[in-house]
Amino acid sequence: MEDYFSYTNKLFDPSKIKEKPEVFKGIKVLDFSHVIYGPVAARLLAQYGAEVFKIELPFVGDLWRFGVYWGKFWKHSSICFHFVQYNKYFLSVNLKLPKAKELIYKLAEQADVVVENFAAGTAEAWEMGYSQLSKINPKIIYLSCATYGQYGPLRFFPGWDLLAQAASGNLSLTGYPETDKYYKLPDYLGDYLPGNVGALSLVMALYHRKKTGKGQYIDLAQSEALMRILPNFTYFSITNEELERVGNTDPTMAPSGIFKSRDGKFVALAVATEEQFKALSSAMGQKKLATEYKDGFDRLKPQNARELYRIAQDWVSKKDSAEIVDLAKEHGFPVAEVMDDLQIANDEWRRQRGSVVAFKDDMYRELVLPGPSAMLSKTPGRTKWLARPLGYHNRYILKTLFGLSEEEIKNLEKERVIGYWDDRPGIKPPVYYDMEQDTVFNYQGNGKEKSHG
Amino acid sequence: MAKKKEKEQVLVRYGSSRRERQAFLANMMSPDGKPEVLDGVVVLDLSYANFSGIIAASLFAEFGAEVIKIEPPEGDPSRKITPYGANVKGVGIPFLMEARNKRYMTLDVRTEKGRRDFEKLAAKANVLIETYPAGQMDSWGIGYRQLSKNNPGLVYIAITPYGQYTDRAKEFRNLPDSDITSQAASGLAANIGDPDTSPEPYNWPFRAGAWLGWYISGLEAALGGAMALLYKETTGEGQMIDVATADAYASLVGYPVLIGYTWEKARPRLGRHDFTLYPYGFWKSKDGVVAIAAPRDHDFRALLKILKLWKIEDDWRFTFDRITDMLDQIEVLYGLIEAETVKYTSDELVRKALEYSIKAARSKWRGGGVPIVMKVQKPSETMQNPHWEIRKSFQKFDDKKLGKFIIPANFIKMSESPPRVKWISCDIGKDNDYIRKKYLAG
């Protein structure tokens, strides 16, 4: 029989992804969302083949177009924005105007999914809420993302990822117990994780619709999604004690922690089971250690865990990190070197796997960005194009989807129903790029365009 | 008169404080008597000492699948992975919390007989979740390539630290998984902790205080699995899904990869500060800690007004004055804000910000800013908030065997087919008879 890894290398071969089918082919998504939390849910559908129409205000655009690290734009755009918006169509219409509303209602007739993440009730006030769109299209699946959800006394309370972390209890959990300092979860994890939960709810709703033909309304609260991942509530309800900041260790595993090795590298080490504890003991050359503790629960008692932490810290500090990793492979206990941004971006394994992809874009040229979190052998996720300047797909969509003529589009432009960028970075194209030559932006529908996507 | 009526209508649409609108929504989202999405889908959970698999299985179970947890007779070691060894009759807290709507069967796939039974089960299953070393199931003759022959619609989810393909996956296949190593390998730990200038060990990479490596991996496994189920519904074809926990964080948030590539260096750790937004963090109050987010210029102006700090507006007016690349400078602003926040209690600060936002939203000009303040809550404080009670975000149990406990549940509200927790149980082999009769008879 063929070697397992040569079989799987073929099964998941990243170079074959383009030839494979897409799960959400033909699914249309109307995306009113902005910043990260909502857009990520829509992006995940786009990553796996849905057509996502991102609606933005002319000359204003998504706030996250300007969300840059330390004020640094990349080719007049935000890399963070690219990551949450790729594969989408960028339509810029002024929803205040009745004509724009008509356009969006027409789009809603064809759409399968709607995503929004305004404060509770805002979409309804704009007449784009579930109660209005479900009248136009009863089979629609409508996802409302808010920090506290659509009902309950906190519903109008505005929020960012940080506030959801605070309200869900997450913000009080990371740090050293004896200090007055808390660390937040970095990189807007409080948006990304609930956004992925949102995508899960959409896939489930699509599955339900496939079976029953029914659409539905989904009310996703960011804070609730973050509460779902904490055992701290259950712990409190059983022990009546607060499980709070614990320092640089995992209280569910002993020993466990992030330690410094002899060569100055940081190594995470953990022991989750008795088998792994035996493995670590023999790797450390202290086999009798394995017999000192009755069982896993005994090992985890605070004083024992502290003692084991000390032993592990001591052991790691006397070895090079490469030695520790080799011993872990040989004996079988969890170890990993701490990887920083640069190491991750250049990691050979991630490149081979397709977790880090050097993507070539028509407009922005090369950008190295993450691949999908889960690799699907038959219907893998993929990147087709990066984010585009504000209103880039206006013409393309109005012509292909609504069959408008050039004259009608020019009238809409004149009436400011649709619009484009101004000179600010974030919403405009890169300087070197010639918009005149762009066949998607200047879409004529005469068959001379290169295919998009 | 007409104007007043119009105003009222807006309030109704906004979901005003009117009880009817609230009750309507609460009722709309109630799971009572509604169908389940994955009704009839059979999921086998073979995960071993790995919560990513257990969590993925839980998500399927909450959406209505029949999830069968398969364990060796001595039980999955995950049962003993618990904070400080806290347990209820030998079952750890995380395992108890994730024991949602599951069936339990003892079956030892390490033995020949166990594998024969397992093959029969897998022929009837829709989804299989496993966390054994890459290639282990295959060498037992029950891997994806063997099982998919009898059951081409099978969705096979494998979760390991380094995945099922590539040279690294082969080399590291025997390395077991844990949450903290996943956090470290996927770029999370490197971005938590104090700046270089702080003393050791405070400037070391730091572990996030929740199982983010495992929860992200479990969620992504379930998301991939759900998509594969949808694809199978259309074409009848199953597939294999590979989740690498060493990649969990980096692929979810993207920043480590994007920054590593565009900056050609790693970010330094910034302690309590954020890279993109400021103020965006936590400050001390008279009686605790509050999280404050007022990063946009108009939010920041509003915050200064609330804190009576307008005199410093000139120095910090623009977002570009508040970039955190000069830590000394931003610490000055931190101190200026803190000197004011400690004068008020957390509740006072929350109320002040909210009152300002409401006033600004009502003003003709808008653009008044939305400074947001939220109390940093301990988990037990979160539980007491009436908001979550109304939304039924916590579910109470009073079990004959397991006693009283609370779990976070109902985290997705859906009007037609919401997920729900029907029962919690964790006895090893509890459903052996039920499963053998239903799936293995004959």
Offer a few descriptive terms.
heterodimer; A: 453 residues; alpha/beta; Rossmann fold; 6-stranded parallel sheet; 19 helices; 12 strands; 38% helix; globular; B: 442 residues; formyl-coa transferase, domain 3; 3-stranded antiparallel sheet
Structural overview:
The complex is a heterodimer of chains A (453) and B (442). Chain A has 453 residues and is an alpha/beta fold. Chain A has 2 domains: 8-228 and 364-437, 3-Layer(aba) Sandwich (Rossmann fold), CATH 3.40.50.10540; 256-341, formyl-coa transferase, domain 3 (2-Layer Sandwich). Chain A is 38% helix and 13% strand. Chain A is built from 19 helices and 12 strands. In chain A, helix 2 crosses helix 8 (189-212). With 442 residues, chain B is α/β, with parallel strands linked by helices. Chain B is built from 18 helices and 14 strands. The chains are: A alpha/beta (453), B alpha/beta (442). At the A-B interface, helix 1, helix 3, helix 5, helix 7 and helix 8 of A face helix 2, strand 3, helix 4, helix 8 and helix 9 of B.
Write a brief structural summary.
The complex is a heterodimer of chains A (453) and B (442). Chain A is α/β, with parallel strands linked by helices and 453 residues long.
- Tell me the helix content of chain A: 25-40%
Q: Report on the biggest sheet of chain A.
A: 6 strands, parallel
Q: Note poorly predicted spans of chain A.
A: none
Mean pLDDT across the residues of chain B is 90
Main CATH class of the largest domain in chain B: Alpha Beta
- Which strand-content bin applies to the residues of chain A? 5-15%
Biggest beta sheet attributes of chain B:
6 strands, parallel
Computed CA radius of gyration of chain B, to the nearest angstrom: 26 Å
Q: Helix segment count of chain A?
A: 19
CATH homologous superfamily title of the largest domain in chain A: Crotonobetainyl-coa:carnitine coa-transferase, domain 1
How many beta-strand elements of chain B?
14
Secondary structural class of chain B: alpha/beta
- Head-to-tail CA distance between termini of chain B: 77 Å
Overall geometric form of chain A = globular
* CATH level 3 topology of the largest domain in chain A: Rossmann fold
